[in-house]
Amino acid sequence: MKSIVKWSLWGMFGIFTGLAALYLGILAIVRWDHLALNASTCEPLGLYKLEGNPFPLHDGELVEVEIPGPDHHPAVAEGLRYHWFPANQPWIKNIAALPGQTVVLKRAGVWVDGHYLPNSHVERRTPGQQHAIIHYPFGTYHLKAGQVWLYAPGNYAFDSAYYGPVPETHILEKARPWWVIPGSQYWLKRGG
Predict the structure, then answer these.
(1) 66: closest CA among 174, 165, 170, 162?
(2) What is the pLDDT of residue 129?
(3) Mean pLDDT, 10 residues at a time, over the chain (192 residues)?
(4) Beta bridge partner(s), residue 47
(5) Distance CA 9, CA 12 (A)
(6) Residue 19: φ, ψ to 5°
(7) CA distance 192 to 129
(8) pLDDT attached to residue 4
(9) What whole-number distance in Å separates Cα of residue 137 and Cα of residue 114?
(10) What is the CA 51 to chain-centroid distance, rounded?
(11) Global pTM value
């Protein structure tokens, strides 16, 4: 009996050591290859390759972006308070609109220069109806110099529809999918 317990402990130690080595190996690859992990359902789950200088910016481009400041964005403060996303971790988003473009925000969604952004319906409650969600005021916005409107197509995506336009200076790098799970941005089912 003692030998069985001894082998079980060694087996568990081996599994733990193997998992720890795998985790450290993945971290090393991520850092070496300049990858970012997206664990939210805003964009497909997975790893994104960061490709450096994002400028000049283009519509539809995928970028890594610094989280807007909670002091000036009530929706971001709310998200941090309820732990909907970690603090100080950049996001992966699409650029939906640039300076000079017009964004119309309605409960039904977002239009940029008259074109509807798919799956951009503004949610009012979190999954399970636990909390009300603060959104940016509905209306028409003409983006000024230095502003961009961010968009993510996933269900319950947290984008500019909730915190408004962000400064171009918040855009950190270009990004592209490296290894992602297609369709995972829709796993979290929408409410009504």
Answers:
(1) 170
(2) 66
(3) 60 76 63 80 92 93 92 88 84 97 97 97 79 91 98 92 96 95 83 54
(4) 37, 179
(5) 5
(6) -65, -40
(7) 9
(8) 59
(9) 18
(10) 17
(11) 0.80
pLDDT value for 39: 87
How far from the centroid of its chain's Cα atoms is residue 110's Cα? Answer: 17
Three-state DSSP string of the chain: CHHHHHHHHHHHHHHHHHHHHHHHHHHHHHHHCCEEEECCCCCCCEEEEECCCCCCCCCCCEEEECCCCCCCCHHHHHHHHCCCCCCCCCEEEEEEECCCCEEEEECCEEEECCEECCCCCCCCECHHHCCECCCCCCEEEECCCCEEEEECCCCCCCCHHHHCCEEHHHEEEEEEEEEECCCHHHCCCCCC
Q: Which two tokens stand for residue 87?
A: 């603090």
